[in-house]
Structures are given as structure tokens and as C-alpha cells.
Amino acid sequence: MTRDSKTRPAVAVTGIGIVTPLGLGVADNWAALCAGRSGIRRITRFPTDHLRTTIAGTVELPNEDLSRAASSQRVTRYATLAAEEALATAGLPVGRFPGPLMLGMPPVETEWATRFALARRAAGATPTYPVLVDAAEGWQEMYRKAAFAGPGETLAEHFGTRGAPIATSTACATGATAIQLGVEAIRRGEAEAVLAIGADGTVEPESLIRFSLLSALSTRNDDPAKAARPFEKTRDGFVMSEGAACLVLESLEHAKARGAKVLGYVRGCGEKSDSFHRTRSNPNGEAVIAAMRNAIVDAGLTPDAIHYVNAHGTGTPENDKMETLGMRAVFGDAAPPISSNKSMIGHTLSAAGAIEAAFSLLAIRDGVLPPTINHEEPDPAIALDVVPNRARDAKVVNVLSNSFGFGGQNVCLVLSGEPA
Amino acid sequence: MADNDIWVTGIGLVSAAGESRAAHLAALAKPEPAALDTTSFAPFPLHPGPPLELDRQIPKKGDQRQMEPWQRLGTYAAGLAIDDAAARDLVAEMDLIVAAGGGERDIALDDSILAALAPLPPEAAAVKLNEMLAGGLRPTLFLAQLSNLLAGNISIVHGVTGSSRTFMGEESAGADALRIAAARLAEGSSRIALVGGAYIATRWDMLLLHSAGGLLRRGAWAPVFSRADEPGAVCGTQAAFLVLEAAAHARARGAKGLARLGLVATGQARRSAADPGHTAVAQALQHVAPRLPEGPLPVISGCTGVAQPTVLEREVLGGMHRPLAVRAAGSRFGWGVEAAFPANAALAALCLAEGAFPVPMEPLEAPFPGPPSDILVTGFGAWRGEAVAHLAAIPAEEQA
Is ipTM beyond 0.95? Predict the structure, then answer.
């Protein structure tokens, strides 16, 4: 049987790759996550003078310094590393991928290093925009770094994916949207396999300042490892981070036909957008609740069949409130354990939905719930089992992974050990 | 799985020609470009957008203030499309895909920072940059230009809350948005969709990127197929949204269709000797060719005037081995980047609904004795990405 309960092609995961501030690769990341280690540190990539927040999760690669690279180059590099690992696990060659690329990534643009370089090119002239535009004429490397299509184009060429790559952004839900687009393409019969990636690399001064100006970031700079405190009374915002995860998605039929080992399934996808506010959910929680319910229904399940929830869990007071409300509404008094990977890796933004889907599959594989660390002072308003501080053994078949984005774009996935 | 017929039941168009169906029909009947500005951004000629009464589609001033011009333009055009489709009461179930731009800058702040810091050594400049950005950036600017927030604002202002996805990737984003929305309608997983994009041409920060790509025409304006002297695009402010629905859904609510949306195919060639850019769209065209009527084939081309894709498009269309009546939409409205493909699909739908076709603007555009029954829409991206769509007129007896 290669179809799900709704007679659609079941979508198997045959490859996983992960890059986060905790390390490079599935094994290192999962071990660190289960050990409750934090990947948050003081920023050394650029000077932090005059900044309210001076901590972040930054990916450190062996023998490779990407601190002066453009964000889009970090996105491309992390995505490449994650996809190479996922393909190796899936037993597929690099360069001839049998399906399209769905890339979740942040918006990219010309950054300050490039503006300064243009000012140097225009030596002498006051560096106003018309002068920069003139100095930029035909500098194709600059175009590749700043065009939205740039990372997808590079990745599509390297991995030999088919068709036009899709680059998508739904803010903090981006990685989940990339996976959802892949699941839908397989269910429609449009593709037998999809390379689904969520990647981010925007820990750079202006992006940090922009989030800081929204008062979204933790300013607990003195003890970086303790800064991300989702579902805890003293949380004060999220910690910016970066990384990538890749899932090789295949129709179960395609995976079986080539004898691939199935690591798990993406069994359901649900989304619902909010029309309330640019950065806040409707206080009644209807969009968040509907996204969670839609994913569970799409998976052909009922709430009682969900064994664990991988939280959006950013550590902002707003998210804690809304996610708790959502959990209560969907699961009633019998809410399953919920934990936040972001307590350790920070908020990897456009990568988060994909990284957390990958961790959800590993929780199913090993029967382990990763903890929510920094849980020191419980918040009486959050009556949830957040798997505080220590990983826990548990039998897990179905996981709901939540992603709620600025702009009201909410996407939830059901990852499962069973196709239907 | 269902394999539904898909209708375009509403369009929202804004360009240098103005807004609404009538303004665009009038522009198509004239052999000249819509509004043109050759001085403000010299040496780059541009097609500026029309003044908009924003209150008509974005009634709250507070909402208007939370958006930069690109988001306002897109939100406005999305509202026009919803009204055109008489679909205001369907917004809660409407699935939204936006082909997004973004990247709008505070030009004055950037200029002042560069003037102050360009002369400094890099280490000192980096420290001072933090200070000037932290003190100078408007807190609202981030979200007001953020790519996924055009979709967010369409949800907030118009209540479109079925689902919300944002694609990024210049022209390809617009074509794939249309393709995926149509695919979901065809299989029955979506019943009504809103798809489109917006682009503001009159901005130095946008010109900066396209200039680096070597994609812009400098100097005097010329129609798209007559730019051999200085190949490149002339940017145009543009926004286009289409309401798409399964034909049965439209009929059931008494909505008329402008056109049937058939094939939408996209590809991304390397544009190298090994992968010149013919395969994907050429195959798609072979697939659709037997269904097209005889006689000159009307084509609304997204040709930008950039040298290589212009050649590729000519070769691919030439490979159909039949007479063509090609019209470069860019000659009238300019290059609308993410908005271009949705806009050209909307123009095709408008032509099919009204029995109209653009009058030729240059010798390469062969006469077409309308009205058209089928129109091909092409989108050979200035840098990458190839796309084609086929739209057909809906016979009167099939309308509600």
C-alpha cells in the first residue's frame, strides 16, 4: 500500500540533513539537542557596539569563514550542506535529483558590504544611489547575490533538480511551507521526489537591528545560553539564529521501487492565515487553532493520536500565549507533551519549519522527546508539559510541528512513523 | 482526483495605463506606450504608475501607513481583482499566492550613511554603521517592505485567509504562482484562488539590482523588439491579481468567466550551450499546439528586450512552425518583474473576454484580425526562468 487514507500518494522522507549552531549533520545536532545543549553565543561575526542584542545562534563551519559572505551566500552554503547530507542518506547522487527544488529562504537584497564596494568603485563621486547604480552596471556577481532567484538557481544547478526551483517565504513558517509545497507536488502526481529545504543566514547587523526595533529579540546578553526561554516565566523574546535542513521527499511508491530506506512520513499539512495584525495573532487564536486542526485532519488523524508537539516556541510572550491557547483548544485537557527546539538553537527563521520537521522525525525514530531548556521558573499561565530541561524517552508515532509567521501565515505539519 | 476546468473570474490591473479593465483596453487600442518618464531616473526610461485613490481599496489610513509603495500597490490591485470577480464574500476560503518583491530602502538614510562611512576604514565604518542604523531605521520599515507582508496585508485589508504563500524569484515567481494555484484548483484541493504580484519601477534601489544584472536599457525609449542598439528592459510600475476558480464553482455562484486558463508551464534553463532554454517550454508548447485553432496565433509576450532571452523566445516560438501575431506587453507597460507574468495573463484574459487584441506597435508585430479565441502568454525572464500559459475564450453557452 503506497497511498494514504485519502487515496493520495503517501509522502515518505528518505533523506535528512541538518545544519544549525549546534553543529553540522544529523548526528551531532541530534546528540546536542537531546543533551539539552544551547547553540546561542555572543556574536563575533561583526562588531556589536550600539546594539541592544549582542547574542545569536551562528553556524560555525570547520575550515570555512562565512562571516564576510552575503546572507544569500550563507543561505546557499547551509542549504548545500544540508542537502548533500540528505542525499547521501537517501542514496541519491548529487547532480541528478529526480524532481523539483522547493526552497524556503529569507528575502535577500544588496547588503552594506556591496554598497561600500560600489562606493569604492565610484571613487571620488558622492555615493548617492544614481552613482551606485552606474557603478553596479553589469556586475553580475552582485546580481547573483541579491536577486531572489539567486540561491535557488545555484542549488538547482548543483543538485540537478528538475523544472523551475520555487523559492518561498512565509516568514517564520517558511521552512514548513517549502515542505508543504513538496508534499502537494507529490500528492498531485506532478513529482515523484522533491528536494525540500529551509535555510537562513541573515545574522548580519541590519537584520538584527530590524528585529530589535520590533522589540522581538531577547536582550539577555550576559548569559547567551540562557537567553532563549520559551514557555518560561522570564522569557523576553526570541534569539536570532540560522541554519538549514533538507528533507528528501518521495512518493512511497518511488522510494519502495528503488529500495530506499524510509525514515518517516510527512502525513499531513495544514495552514490558515490570520487577518488580525502584522505581528500579532487574533486574540481568539482562530487561525493558529485552524492551522493545527487542518494538519491533523489532513493526516487522517484525530487530536488524541498526536503523541508530541514540536512547538513554534519562539520565546516571545505573544507566542507563548497563543501557542498555549492553541494547544488547549485543539487537545483540551489531554494535551500531549510540547517542547521547543528554539530553546537550544534559537529562532532559525526561514529554516525553522524545516529544521524542526527534521528533529520531529528523529524524535519518532529514536523515541525521544528533546527538551525545552532554561525552564527554571514555570509560568502558571502555561499549563503544558514542556518536557522541561531533560530529554525524555517516549513512544512517538505522530508529531505535530507548529510554525506561526509574522504576517499571520501559519503552517503545521504532521510527521509520522506510519504512512496512514 | 478531479481535473477541473479553471476560469479567470476577475482581474485587478494597475499600470502606467491606469487601473481597471477600461483603461487597459484603451491602452491596447493605441500604438504607443502608456505613460513614460525619461528624465526622473535618467539614463533609464521608466513607465511610472498612476496616482491611486488608496482609500478605495485600503480604507484604513493606519493600514496604508504600515506599507511601503510596493505593498500598497499590490494590496490595492488585489482588492480590484476581488471586486472584479464579485468575490468579497468568498475571501475567507480564498487561497492566496503572491509573487513578491520587497527590498525597498530608506534612500535618504542609505545615502547619508554611505556619505559618512565610505571614507572610513572598514573596522570603524562597521561600528558606526550599527549606530547609524539603530538610530536611523524606522521601526515600521522592516515589515512595510518585507516580502511575505504583501500577502499579510492582503489578508489584513481584504480578509483573504484561506491559505497564504509567497514566492520569490523575479518573473518566475509570478509564473509559478499561477501554475501552482491552477494545479491546486484542477485537482480540487482549492476552490478559489487569488494570485498576482506588484512592482514599483520608480525606485533607485530596484534599479540598482537590475543594473548589476545588466538588464536595463539606457537612453531613448524604443519598443521591445526594436532595441538592438541598446538591449535591455524598460521597467514599468505594474500590479496584477487574478481570481481563479473551478468553472463549476463560478457557475454555481453565477459568476462569469473572462477566460479559461489552460496550460501553465514553467522551466529554468541554464541558458548555456548545453542548456539553451528551449526544452521545457518548447515541450509544453508541443503539448498544447494540437488544441490551437488554425491561422495566426495571438501571443502576448513578456519579452523584456534583454538580448539573450529575446533570442531564445524567438527560437522557441519559431519552432511552432506557424504564423504568429506577437505583441510585446512591455512596449506599452514596461517590465513589471514579479508582476509581469500575472499581468500578461490578466491582459490575455481581458482580450479574450472583450474580443480585443493589442494593435501592433512595430513591424515584427503582425496584424491580427480579431477577435482571438486563444492566446499564448510567454515569460522569458530577463535573467532566468521561462514560462508559457494558454488562455482560451469561454463560449457564451458555457457561461452561467
Answer: yes
